């Protein structure tokens, strides 16, 4: 009897709708973050503090990374759908080829909603604790990391949008 009850419970858990699942592993409490210098497409020097007040999906990527290249259109669609005063996708390239490589890649795959951001590869990876690309951090409006995912994801999926909207709503 107990076995059957356990198995039924396990099957029920596995049958949950996709939107109820989380794409990113959430932390029990928000974590403080460091920020390397970030340069935007206009040449301005920024840090994560410049994005306080908004929920940020910080994606660390490079044009030479196949999984990064594959997920970029989903990030572009996410920014088109949710981007605004409360939310921003910060696609942070760590390409040694600089903005020229990023601009060429954006043009190649028709990225139109993501802004250009660049950080030094070593400083960016160390500051954000990156162990593989892509790495994506969900940052709350107070500038603290609330969730993390190493590896690609479908960022415009119902599950990702649901998880992000929950953080936006919490503020």
TrEMBL record:
Question: What subcellular locations does the record give?
Answer: Cell envelope
Q: Tell me the leader sequence span.
A: 1-20
Tell me which InterPro entries the record gives. Redoxin, Thioredoxin-like_sf, Thioredoxin_CS, Thioredoxin_domain, Thioredoxin_ResA/DsbE_sf
Does the record carry Signal as a key word? Answer: yes
The UniProt entry, under PROSITE patterns, shows: THIOREDOXIN_1 (PS00194), THIOREDOXIN_2 (PS51352)
Q: Which residues form the Thioredoxin domain?
A: 25-171
Which keywords appear in this protein's UniProt record, sorted alphabetically? Cytochrome c-type biogenesis, Redox-active center, Signal
Entries under SUPFAM superfamilies matching the protein: Thioredoxin-like
Chief localisation class: other
Record flagged with keyword tRNA-binding: no
Gene3D superfamilies referenced in this protein's UniProt entry, alphabetically: Glutaredoxin
**Name by which UniProt lists this protein:** Thioredoxin domain-containing protein
Record organism = Sulfitobacter indolifex HEL-45
């Amino acid at each position: 009897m107990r076995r059957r009850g356990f198995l039924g419970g396990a099957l029920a858990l596995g049958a949950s709708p996709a939107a109820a699942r989380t794409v990113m592993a959430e932390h029990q409490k928000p974590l403080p973050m460091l920020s390397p210098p970030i340069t935007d497409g206009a040449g301005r020097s920024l840090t994560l503090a410049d994005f306080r007040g908004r929920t940020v999906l910080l994606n660390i990527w490079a044009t030479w990374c196949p999984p990064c290249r594959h997920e970029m259109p989903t990030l572009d669609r996410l920014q088109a759908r949710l981007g605004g005063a409360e939310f921003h996708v910060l696609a942070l390239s760590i390409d040694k080829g600089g903005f020229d490589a990023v601009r060429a890649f954006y043009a190649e795959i028709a990225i139109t909603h993501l802004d250009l951001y660049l950080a030094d590869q070593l400083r960016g990876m160390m500051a954000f604790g990156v162990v593989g690309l892509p790495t994506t951090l969900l940052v709350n409006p107070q500038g603290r990391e609330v969730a993390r995912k190493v590896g690609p994801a479908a960022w415009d999926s119902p599950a990702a949008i649901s998880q992000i909207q929950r953080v936006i709503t919490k503020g």
